[in-house]
# Entry
Amino acid sequence: MTGPEHWRIAYPAFIVAMVLLGITSYFLLRRLDGRGSAPGGKSS
# Structure
């Protein structure tokens, strides 16, 4: 996909992008899960 000459840059960049996407998804889902679950907007 990236070619033999650019794999040393591409693979770490893909890993960093996946980690950032996972962290962003975690916090977004955590934030959305807390809404409306308890009166007053506070989660248990």
